[in-house]
Amino acid sequence: METADLARARLNSDIALAATGDRAAFARIYQSTSHKLFGIVVRMLHDREAAEEVLQEVYLKIWDRAGSFEPGRASPITWMATIARNSAIDSLRRRDRRRDEPEAVEGAPDAADATDPDVRIGLVRCMDLLDEHQRQFIRSAFFEGYSYSELAHHAAVPLGTMKSWIRRGLERLRYCLDGE
């Protein structure tokens, strides 16, 4: 049985070797840490399949960032656990963003229509009729993929207010586009 200090020293060494491209060292890192990191990710995501995908991302990040690891700042397992935790949080945010996708909102611009030049010209003209805030929030929600909650947080307004602003803007857009 390895002592904690010996395990830490071995991981420090393997991370340094992985930074030089040593695949055997990276395999040892995976072998000795994958159960712990998988446990962190699966506890956060509550989804085994998603956790497996995130764990793969985690090890890609560890491989890419091995050269930036500083043993004096944190233990190697703490450093890797932080990468795992942050990757799981990013996955949750992506999942929330997909769930909050505003494209299901009635009156939202249809992506298929956006390829029609006439529709695009009309959409640009109608977008210009909106006030600057509505125009920016609609662009951010529908064309940049921000969720309503992210926009509300950024604008420091309640979520319901943001939804109302966007809904009213979409109604004005629909009225404008229908009038063409």
TrEMBL record:
Region (Disordered): 94-113
Protein name stated in the entry: RNA polymerase subunit sigma
GO terms under biological process: DNA-templated transcription initiation
Similarity-based family: Belongs to the sigma-70 factor family. ECF subfamily.
Annotated RNA polymerase sigma-70 region domain residues: 30-98, 126-174
Keywords assigned by UniProt, alphabetized: DNA-binding, Sigma factor, Transcription, Transcription regulation
Annotated InterPro entries: RNA_pol_sigma-70-like, RNA_pol_sigma-70_dom, RNA_pol_sigma70_r2, RNA_pol_sigma70_r4, RNA_pol_sigma_r2, RNA_pol_sigma_r3/r4-like, WH-like_DNA-bd_sf
A Pfam family assignment: Sigma70_r2
Entries under SUPFAM superfamilies matching the protein: Sigma2 domain of RNA polymerase sigma factors (SSF88946), Sigma3 and sigma4 domains of RNA polymerase sigma factors (SSF88659)
GO molecular function: DNA binding; sigma factor activity
Entries under CDD domains matching the protein: Sigma70_r4
